[in-house]
Design a protein that fits this description.
Blueprint lengths: L1 H8 L1 E3 H7 L4 H13 L3 E4 L2 E4 L19 H4 L4 H12 L7 E4 L18 E3 L3 H7 L6 E3 L4 E3 L4 E3 L14 E4 L3 E3 L2 E4 L2 H11 L5 E4 L11 E4 L6 E5 L4 H9 L3 E5 L4
Parallel strand pairs: 4-5, 4-9, 5-6, 9-12, 12-14, 14-15
Antiparallel strand pairs: 1-3, 2-3, 7-8, 10-11, 11-13
Keywords: Transcription, Transcription regulation
Protein name: HTH deoR-type domain-containing protein
GO molecular function, one term: DNA-binding transcription factor activity
């Protein structure tokens, strides 16, 4: 997490680390010392900066996330994502409050939401753009940094302006799904999604069947925390059984549905 913050900002003050991260000052100092000894950071007066970054505390690097950029991911398994998006939208009730997490599969929900007059919280600029023409859809967006490759807004901290928001359900994608749970490739993305989950009564996971093949990454939640999985009809039997054993409702969507 320290390295992720430094990659976003170039410099981070020790007081900010102490205030924002769930670690004692002694633990933070030991971690900073280990990172400096490993040649990853340089400790300076009041904080730390990345090696090779001589900029001031007010100058940050362009934030990036690990994982596939959005423009590459959107074309993958596109037909399956269209079906999944339509089936997920059918779960929404008129005028309810929902969270739609950023992703190429959750984006496919948007064309089917116009008549529902939803209140939508989303961290995705792509989803916001798709919902803006829907005059009956109310839109909220959290505070944070813009990650350009995925076109999402994320903050690793609690003060993102959405502490009082409450949703009946959250629609979320994932990098992978396996017996350990739902996973993302980036730790900051995983932590931001955990906080969004706390604001929803129900979690609906939107993933095409390929996401069950190589489950690796940072765990967002365990399978028993997922209420519904919407996927395509190519899901393998063992993966369907895994969800069933975890008490997850499985919806298999097809283009003809």
């Amino acid at each position: 997490m320290i390295l992720q913050l430094l990659q976003q900002r170039g410099f981070v003050a020790f007081q900010e680390l102490d205030r924002q991260l769930q670690a004692s000052p002694a633990t933070l100092r030991r971690d900073l010392e280990k990172l400096e000894n490993a040649g990853r950071i340089v400790r300076v007066r009041g904080g730390a900066r990345l090696v090779g970054d001589s900029s001031s505390a007010s100058t940050a690097e362009i934030p990036k996330l690990s994982g596939v950029p959005f423009h590459q991911n959107v074309a993958r398994h596109h037909e399956a994502k269209l079906a999944i998006g339509r089936a997920a939208a059918a779960l929404c009730k008129p005028r309810e409050s929902v969270i739609i997490d950023g992703g190429s599969t959750t984006l496919c929900m948007c064309p089917h939401l116009e008549s529902l007059e939803l209140q939508v919280l989303s961290n995705s600029l792509h989803i916001i753009d798709a919902l803006l023409p829907q005059t009956g859809t109310r839109i909220a967006i959290p505070a944070g940094a813009v990650f350009r490759e995925q076109n999402i807004v994320l903050s690793p901290f609690e003060d993102d302006g959405m502490g009082r928001y409450r949703a009946s359900r959250m629609f979320m994608g994932a990098a992978a799904v396996g017996r350990h749970g739902v996973m993302q490739s980036d730790v900051i993305l995983a932590q931001a999604e955990r906080r969004l989950l706390e604001r929803a009564d129900e979690l609906v996971l939107l993933v095409d069947s390929s996401k069950f093949e190589a489950p690796t990454g940072h765990v967002i939640c365990t399978l028993d925390e997922v209420d519904i999985v919407v996927t395509d009809r190519n899901i393998r039997d063992e993966h369907a059984r895994m969800l069933e054993q975890a008490g997850v409702r499985l919806i298999m969507a097809g283009l003809e549905d």
